[in-house]
Model the fold of this input.
Amino acid sequence: MLVYLNGTYVDHTEANVSVGDRGFVFGDGIYEVVRVVEGNFIMEDEHLSRMDEGLEGLKITLRESLKREIPEISRTLIEKNSLQTGEAKVYIQITRGSAWPRTHTFPEPEVEPTVYLSAESFSPHTELHKTGVDAITVSDVRWSRCNLKTVNLLPNTLAKQQATEAGVNSAVMIRDGAITESPNANIFGVKDGTLYTYPATHYILSGITRNAVIGFADELGIPVKFMPIRLDDLFELDELFFSGTTTDIQPVTEVDGKKIGGGKPGPVVRKIQKAYKEMLYGS
Done:
């Protein structure tokens, strides 16, 4: 598999970054994942806009000329890896760059950021979208700037591993008694035909697919309330689902061994799934 690293296309087995790279030693960087269907980049502009927000939030300066090249680099990787048909995903990661010695302050003078992109095939979780998945509740111990899509994913990784060890698909993260996100997706609840989702604060990532779901709901006449779902109210919901670039629209039918609603995907999530599928693949 060919990847892009700092201006060069190279086999992934030969791609190397310095041990002084701040993404390696501090997790000092941001990333994005863009879905590609039959060569079409899904909501690419929205991903690149959020990438800009992340760079600004971390005060990483990327040359405008290089920033403008990212769509072209992405398409070159799709072509070089023969991914023009079927489904794929492009991973974009930008760190503050390599500096020595290791210090907690930003490098002086400023160094060139490390820019890495890869592209690989992708298979949607089609069967799980039909049947729904199970999850457990875990404490949301992430930092308070979850709105930035940084490469600091250790709490997410530990939560996902906890779910795996519990024998379930994923986790529902709880902060101060309220549902925030899953380790790798946003969360929506449904009660009496209304969607509920955590407001777009620093405690969640403003997901690209989340925003698409909100748009679909508006088109379908489904009310949306931006308010936290309390853990105490979780099992009073009619439906629960995850949303994400590679998660798609994933019904959650069981949490902590208890059924959500009727224990199967409900009518609201089915409508959202249909709209999302039409966006990805056409009607």
Summary: DSSP finds seven helices and 17 strands in the chain. The two ends are 33 Å apart (CA to CA). Helices lie at 22-26, 44-58, 64-80, 126-131, 154-165, 208-220, 267-281. The chain has two domains: 2-121, 126-281.
